[in-house]
Design goal:
Bound molecules: nicotinamide-adenine-dinucleotide, UDP-4-deoxy-4-formamido-beta-L-arabinopyranose
Order of helices and strands: EHEHEHEHHEHEEHEEEHEEHEHH
Number of helices: 11
Strand content: 15-25%
Number of strands: 13
Distance between the termini: 36 Å
CATH architecture of one domain: 3-Layer(aba) Sandwich
Helix content: 40-55%
CATH topology of one domain: Rossmann fold
Strand order of the largest sheet: 3-2-1-4-5-6-11
Radius of gyration: 19 Å
CATH class of one domain: Alpha Beta
């Protein structure tokens, strides 16, 4: 099977790239490095001791995509590329709709013209919005609360309509909960360009001395200890879910949305404590105001992934903190050093 990865040099793309290569799948990584570094692909090459196809370019440009499809003739696409900062999407909604929604339409159009029938799409648990019940199952009403989340919702709907019009096509919409951690090697990992928005990279950068202290956004939520509770999924498990999903798409028809999480919530304070144990460093923190748009609790119902993909998360909180620290301490300034 030949698989095209849009955004293949990004955080989730690079770990999936590694997983697919280790499984012997023929891959092409397409990226414009707008939020990643070429060094990522060099490191994946070294780790696998294999060469694979790459293409530097913007996935939204029809000529770039046509060239890639003609050259590589993918059987399936895993579509990671896009913008992902919730706060920024409130300030620049049109940029988010153009990058994420219009870009995805161009990609589907190109797939159609080249007879490529299978897509795995990076969706997000953010499509659910405020929980009406927990855990979130795939039938939970969809009510995203920010433009970023709405781009994911709209793309899901567009893919559904596209699949409905093509009897032999297949799509898996993977709704990730909170991806964290790094490859065991410590050679690739999450490397945000600006001050991290997400909890784990922020804690990692405090531990390594790049940031002074963590602000915990609220300690008066209705949770075990008052801090926000999330379903953190190890990146290696997430990469394995993509491998299972692309195989599933290859062998089945239709469109399925599938949660990718562990089914268990971890609070911010629990994460801080686990990271301190893994790193042997103290994580200074202060309690700050709640962050606008945050929910108290979020965790996944995971039986559909097990049923359809024969996939479950294998890594726990200790693995998450150990691998995140291994990556951060080996690469204190990320890929650029
Ligand atoms: P990332 O920013 O690390 O990776 C995205 C990659 O796409 C980057 O390498 C970037 O350079 C590339 N890219 C962006 N625009 C491009 C374009 N126009 N043409 C070519 N390449 C382009 O992000 P990530 O964390 O790996 O996320 C991957 C996908 O998963 C995104 O669609 C994101 O919305 C989704 N997702 C991420 C999370 C998360 O917490 N990380 C959670 C849910 C869903
Ligand atoms: C986790 C918990 C914060 C930072 C986001 C996106 C979501 C998805 C995953 C893409 C919360 C708390 C955080 C900090 C803190 N991305 N926190 N101090 O908000 O669950 O999800 O990433 O699809 O769309 O919204 O993840 O890591 O930002 O926050 O106290 O400096 O940590 O309040 O309880 P979130 P997060």
């Amino acid at each position: 099977m030949r698989v095209l990865l849009t955004g293949g040099a990004g955080y989730i793309g690079s770990h999936t790239l590694l997983k697919l290569l280790q499984d012997g799948i023929d891959v092409l990584a397409l990226d414009n490095f707008s939020n990643s570094s070429p060094e990522v692909l060099r490191r994946v090459q070294k780790l696998t001791n294999s060469s694979f196809a790459t293409h530097v370019g913007d996935y939204r440009a029809p000529d770039v995509l046509d060239e890639v499809f003609e050259k590589f003739r993918p059987d399936a696409v895993i579509h990671f590329a896009g913008l992902k900062a919730v706060g920024e999407s409130n300030e620049k909604p049109l940029t988010y709709y153009a990058q994420n929604v219009s870009g995805s339409i161009n990609l589907l159009d190109c797939m159609q013209r080249h007879g490529c029938q299978n897509i795995v799409f990076s969706s997000s648990a953010t499509v659910y919005g405020e929980a009406q019940y927990l855990p979130y199952d795939e039938d939970h009403p969809l009510n995203p609360t920010n433009p970023y989340g709405r781009t994911k919702y709209f793309i899901e709907e567009i893919i559904r309509d596209w699949i409905a019009s093509r009897p032999h096509a297949s799509a898996v919409l993977l709704r990730y909960f909170n991806p964290v951690g790094a490859d065991e090697s410590g050679n690739i990992g999450e490397d945000p360009r600006a001050i991290p928005n997400n909890l784990l990279p922020y804690i990692s950068q405090v531990a390594v001395g790049r940031l002074k202290e963590l602000s915990i956004f609220g300690n008066n939520y209705e949770t075990r200890d008052g801090t926000g509770e999330r379903d953190y999924i190890h990146i290696d498990d997430l990469a394995a879910a993509h491998l299972a999903a692309v195989k599933y798409a290859h062998e089945n028809h239709g469109c399925e949305a599938i949660n990718v999480g562990t089914g268990t919530g971890i609070t911010v304070l629990e994460m801080v404590k686990a990271f301190e144990e893994a790193s042997g460093r103290e994580i200074p923190f202060k309690i700050a105001e709640r962050r606008q748009g945050d929910v108290a609790r979020s965790f996944a119902e995971v039986s559909k992934a097990q049923r359809l993909l024969d996939w479950t998360a294998k890594r726990d909180l200790t693995d998450i903190c150990r691998t995140a620290w291994n990556w951060q301490s080996k690469n204190p300034s990320g890929f650029e050093h």
